[in-house]
Amino acid sequence: MTKTIELRIYGMTCDDCVAHVSKGLNEADGVTDVFVSLKDGIAIVKADNEIKPEDLTNLNVFKGKYKAQTRSVKND
Amino acid sequence: MYLRGSTKPRLEVLKMTEYDLAIIGWGAAGFAAAIKGSELTSNQMKIALIGYGPLGGTCVNVGCVPSKFLIEASKNYREASHPSYAGIKASASIDFPEFMESLNNFVSTEREGKYTNVISNFENIDLYEGLAKFIDKNTVSVNGKEIKAFNFLISTGSRTFIPEIRGLTNYYTSDNIWNIQKLPEKIAVLGSGEVALEMAYAFSNFGSEVHIFNRSNRILKGFDDDINSELIEALRSNGINFHLGVNFHEIKEENRKKTIVTSTETFTEFDAILVATGRISNVEGLNLKAAGISNDNGIIVDDTLKTTNPNIYAAGDCVRQPLKLETLAGKEGVIAVENMLGGGRTVNMNEIPWVVFTEPNVASVGYTEYELKKKNIEYSVRTVDLKNVVKANILKSANGLAKIIADRDKKIIGVHVVGPNAAEFIIEGVYLIKNKLTYNDLIDSVHVFPTVGESIKISGQAFIRDISKMSCCMD
To answer: How far is CA B379 from CA B371, B402, B410, B416, B426, in A?
Structure first.
């Protein structure tokens, strides 16, 4: 079972930012797929069911310039 | 950007959420939150800032800023009229309407500089003027327009509580006293908290006959009796009349003169009445129930300022908390936004200083003896009369005291001063408490001589020796 977690991402200004955020999310345990939109400032993450949204928003990548906030969680 | 071959998802959540954050109230807490939210997100947090009345709320418009302008000017007038030093003779007069015009111009300038111009730098913040009312947990209505947001901060401030007294009409509060054009010859101030005392002090300095009335038989709720006694004595010597523990019967008006009738006495010939009987939270009309927010004499929040709805925070005077201060509101606005974005900060009320800007000032931070006794916490205390402080004697303002409270480990947990300029140095008490320093740390720090701030060090020294047997500047 997986779930889809939508995150609002603040602080991204360029494609390098998108790559940085995407890499941070992809490297997290239990994450299976990541979509990041610079234009909308969001990330949509598919993750194993045991992953909690705060496991993602507390990642190191969101402790500096970038901030993340959970918008929704849906079971796939 | 797609990774691992995903298909583009639908952005349903963003479509239904117009703003990332809606802030209800554009006073100190609301502004601090809006700016902090912008800073933390590189101005990408889309913010609706909703309010009514002049930008900046109570403090800059009708609170700290005009009241301190009034107080400082009144001190200037009194000092010019009554020089303190031998051989100096002077007289002064006042054009009160001209003075009040300058006060209101100053307020406009500060509002412009600290609020209006500041907010214009943030393109991510939209202003909406009007009263907000929750329709549901994600939506408020403002003048018929619906504003949706994912996060909300309520920072609607407070207003003067008006007691029920028969005949109490046609009075001033700290909201409208700034429109007064004629200096009252005789003014009644209802209440004995910080606002009442400050305004009474200012009008007394200008030469008005001032009478303070209060139902309680004490002033400054929450302060220890020795602090209150010092201040009452100082204000009485300034010419203020205290009528404490009174039961109001009614207030009458005839030929523009007001009469206050209590259960035991009648006081006549007042030109004006100022009501300053405490403040209550502005929460009416918000329809908090629709948003799942609990309220009981102020919005109920947890330590992180989260309301009973986890997506809605509250900050400042509208929160159910003992202190109503602009500085606290500004701090809470910042902390609330940080916590929305994953932080876990809290406010330690024992590190929040507060001041009554009479002369002498009353400045306080940390525990009072009253609180410690109530909580059954072991403590020791030393109190030093300001007559032991050279600078207070130079200023001819030695009516006052400095008091330090320490815990069993010698750590300072309360600093309270009644003295001139105490507002300027109470920050030392904040640092002592915040950094868990002992009175030995305090004594080990060289203080500037002569200053009134030295009173804090001398109070610390009183823990280790008899200060009457101590020479000047001894460590």
So the answer is: 11, 16, 9, 15, 20
